[in-house]
């Protein structure tokens, strides 16, 4: 076959296509994944029927929707808080130019009516300002489908890929922010199992485990996650904070990840450390590389207590890390330079925000705010961190 431009080539997939939301603005196609046909989580059959039955397209011989999942050709479940999930249980043709998936049934099959559904494959459907940036896909049973130019006789998984430095969780459903709920997994896997999976994937690239080094460490190793080139939550006095940490007794490694940072290199740095500290942000997803028992300190700027808990505190505890928080005081936040110290925005961020985590409020606390440590307070706090990290290091000897 002659080489053809992707935008003009239609691709057909046999079996079924799952539309799933993960994290980013670009749609990825993974055609070698082993996907279960049991894709709809049972949240009550009655509730599921009322919300989804209108979206099914069935041939004349198909049984009622709840009686035989294999009889469904197209299903969409929009009952979940975080994500929508659609599947095509049969051959389909992809038109990359329009981001449309066409159901392709046997020539003898007829459909009661044309079906058309749209989906943005991302697990944050409750945040409109985020979802606006996610590419919309179309699923249809329209008869005017493009010709299939390239065939793949395998299942296909469609989702939005991660924009974070590393991906948090990979699954067909979202368990929430940085969370694994064993009740939603048939084999009851936990974060401990996921950590073992990461060890297997990235732990065999030749790095030397601290406890196996012929020259035992005298000082606990601490990774300081830097946001120097980021928009918001930058540590303005990072160099001075590093000197304080070294004076306390840490061997400090400044880690400034970017989208091009090889995961095996990041794993080697963090897995070999005894402590890690960083301001709340996507880069703290690297805490998944810390060994159980090591210390993880999340620096929490003003107004971000709740998001710090749901994004990293829960996962850290689930991985059996020694989790700690350094909460920024008003004097350590750059917001006091822009807003009055007595404003509700600074005095009581919870009351200021209320139940409205809008884009404007989010920008204030996430993008306008930088950190300037009170180095005396910072030093006193990290003496406690040092004690815990030293205990962890000594246990390995």
Quick structural summary:
The protein has 397 residues and is α/β, with parallel strands linked by helices. Helices cover 24% and strands 18% of the residues.
Tags for this model:
397 residues, alpha/beta, Rossmann fold, five-stranded mixed sheet, 24% helix, globular, disordered N terminus
How is this structure best described in words?
With about 400 residues, the chain is α/β, with parallel strands linked by helices. It has two domains: about 140 residues, no CATH class; about 210 residues, Rossmann fold (3-Layer(aba) Sandwich), CATH 3.40.50. The chain is about 25% helix and about 20% strand. The chain contains ten helices and 16 strands. The strands form three sheets. It has a six-stranded mixed β-sheet, with no helix packed on it. It has a five-stranded mixed β-sheet with strand order 3-11-2-5-4. α6 links the parallel β15 and β16. The longest helix has 22 residues. The N terminus is likely disordered.
């Amino acid at each position: 076959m002659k080489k053809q431009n992707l935008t003009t080539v239609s691709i057909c997939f046999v079996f079924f296509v799952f539309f799933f939301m993960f994290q980013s603005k670009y749609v990825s196609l993974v055609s070698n994944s082993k996907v279960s046909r049991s894709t709809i989580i049972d949240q009550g059959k009655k509730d599921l029927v009322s919300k989804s039955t209108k979206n099914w397209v069935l041939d004349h011989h198909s049984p009622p929707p709840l009686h035989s999942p294999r009889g469904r050709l197209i299903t969409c479940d929009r009952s979940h808080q975080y994500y929508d999930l659609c599947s095509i249980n049969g051959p389909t043709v992809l038109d990359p130019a329009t981001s449309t998936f066409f159901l392709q049934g046997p020539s003898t099959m007829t459909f009661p009516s044309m079906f058309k559904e749209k989906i943005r494959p991302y697990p944050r459907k409750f945040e409109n300002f985020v979802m606006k940036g996610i590419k919309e896909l179309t699923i249809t049973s329209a008869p005017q489908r493009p010709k299939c130019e390239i065939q793949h006789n395998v299942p296909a998984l469609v989702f939005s890929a991660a924009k974070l430095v590393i991906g948090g969780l990979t699954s067909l459903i979202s368990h929430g922010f940085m969370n694994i709920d064993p009740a939603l997994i048939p084999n009851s896997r936990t974060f401990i199992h996921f950590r073992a999976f990461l060890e297997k994937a990235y732990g065999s690239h030749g790095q030397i485990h601290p406890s196996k080094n012929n020259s035992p460490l005298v000082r606990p190793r601490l990774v300081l996650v830097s946001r120097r080139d980021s928009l918001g939550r930058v540590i303005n006095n990072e160099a001075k904070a590093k000197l304080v940490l070294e004076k306390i007794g840490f061997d400090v490694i400044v880690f400034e990840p970017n989208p091009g940072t090889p995961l095996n290199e990041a794993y080697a740095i963090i897995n070999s450390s005894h402590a890690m500290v960083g301001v709340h942000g996507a880069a703290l997803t690297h805490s998944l590389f810390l060994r159980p028992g090591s210390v993880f300190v999340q620096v929490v700027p003003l107004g971000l207590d709740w998001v710090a808990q749901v994004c990293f505190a829960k996962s850290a505890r689930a991985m059996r890390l020694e989790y700690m928080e350094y909460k920024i005081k008003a004097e350590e936040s750059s917001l006091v330079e822009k807003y009055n110290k007595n404003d509700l925005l600074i005095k009581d961020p919870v009351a200021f925000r209320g139940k409205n985590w809008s884009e404007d409020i989010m920008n204030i606390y996430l993008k306008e705010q930088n950190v300037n440590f009170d180095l005396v307070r910072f030093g006193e706090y990290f003496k406690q961190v040092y004690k815990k990290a030293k205990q962890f290091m000594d246990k390995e000897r």
